[in-house]
Amino acid sequence: MAENNGGNSNSGGASTNTAEVQIQIPGPSKNEAPAAQEAPAGSSEARNWKWWFVVATDAFFLIVGQTSATLLGRYYYSQGGSSKWLSAFLQTAGFPILFFGLFFFPSKSSSGETPIGKVAMIYIVLGLIMTADDIMYSHGLMYLPVSTYSLICASQLVFNVIFSYVLNSQKLTGLVMNSVVLLTLSALLLGVNHESYGYTGVSRGKYLLGFLLTLGASGTYSLILSLMQLTFENVVKKQTFSAVLNMQIYTAFVATFACLIGLFASGEWKDLKGEMDSFQSGQFSYLMTLVWTSVSWQVASIGMVGLIFEVSSLFSNVISIFALPIVPLFGVMVFHDEMNGVKIIAMLISIWGFISYVCQHYLDNKKARSA
């Protein structure tokens, strides 16, 4: 579900935004011979096109994976599924797919390796926080129309700004504050939208609970991203693709194991057989829904990790938010969600807030490159 905050990169004397985790693409040294400097003129353009192609591919994976996972998650509930722990489990259970990334980008040992015990403790803590995040998202998706759920998730940018300011020393500008105000207004409009009560067969109380839990999940996810940034900066101190993959894999492993414990401790596992038998579209559809939900979350994760590696975790989070307005449109077409005037206004305000945030991100990158 998805979303990332930024860190910083201070290698090579390059000045970058202190709120971004960026892995710089090595460029030619200023001390190279003139003959060596002429070659990059042509090859630099080719590398630039290749870089944009990779970034576009990663963004495509993130958007498609996140959209598919959200829609399939709502489809699971709409067809008779009711296990919130199973829904949370599926959000991270496909993490073994990421081991393929480690196969192609193996980690290189270094003399300054971080103690395994310290790293393991960080992974456990982050994984447990991720578990709480997953279960809150599962409740929200169960009680809310998918269109409302997706628009509320856009509020993670607001929490992103708050945690970045407090934990990662990100500066607050006019455009960022404008984005915070607009996204907050969008979420509030959805929270008081009485026309959505009962639309998914839930009471007003459960609708408000779903709203608050989704809002809380958005904040928790942003907290996770800021804590990951701090870990990269102060503990891992390596900005490599394998380091990012390890962070994703082992925190997901902890979250998956914790969700599995929750599934058995809650007793929901006893109802899974009956749930599969009573699934409206059949048992095979039930199994395929579970499998492809898990795969879709990992496709989104691959895109997210790729964007962290190629650009920054902040940019990855922005692309994740960009996908959110797409989901309500599919929600209307697939689940026949009601797109009333309040939702349309909330969507437009959300897009406006997103554009303000992207503009600030563009200005920050432009300033960093010219420095």
Can you describe this structure?
The structure is a single chain. The protein is mainly α and 371 residues long. It has one domain. The chain is built from 14 helices and no strands. Helix 1 packs parallel to helix 13 (326-335), helix 4 runs antiparallel to helix 8 and helix 11 packs antiparallel against helix 12 (313-323). Mean pLDDT is 76; it is low at 1-39.
Strand content: under 5%
Outline type = globular
Computed structural class: mainly alpha
Radius of gyration (CA) equals 21 Å
Helix content: over 70%
The major beta sheet can be summarized as: none
Low-confidence stretches: 1-39
Mean of pLDDT:
76
Oligomer: single chain
Terminal CA distance reads 35 Å
Number of helices: 14
User: How do the helices and strands follow one another from N- to C-terminus?
Assistant: HHHHHHHHHHHHHH
Instruction: Give the tally of structural domains.
Output: 1
State the main characteristics:
14 helices, mainly alpha, 371 residues, disordered N terminus
How is the topology of this model organized?
Elements: H1 34-78, H2 84-90, H3 99-104, H4 116-143, H5 146-153, H6 156-168, H7 174-191, H8 204-236, H9 241-265, H10 272-277, H11 283-310, H12 313-323, H13 326-335, H14 341-370
Helix pairs in contact: 1-11, 1-12, 1-13, 2-4, 2-9, 4-8, 4-9, 5-13, 6-8, 7-14, 9-11, 11-12, 12-14
Question: What's the short story on this structure?
Answer:
Helices cover 72% and strands 0% of the residues. It has 371 residues and is mainly alpha-helical. The protein has one domain (55-370).
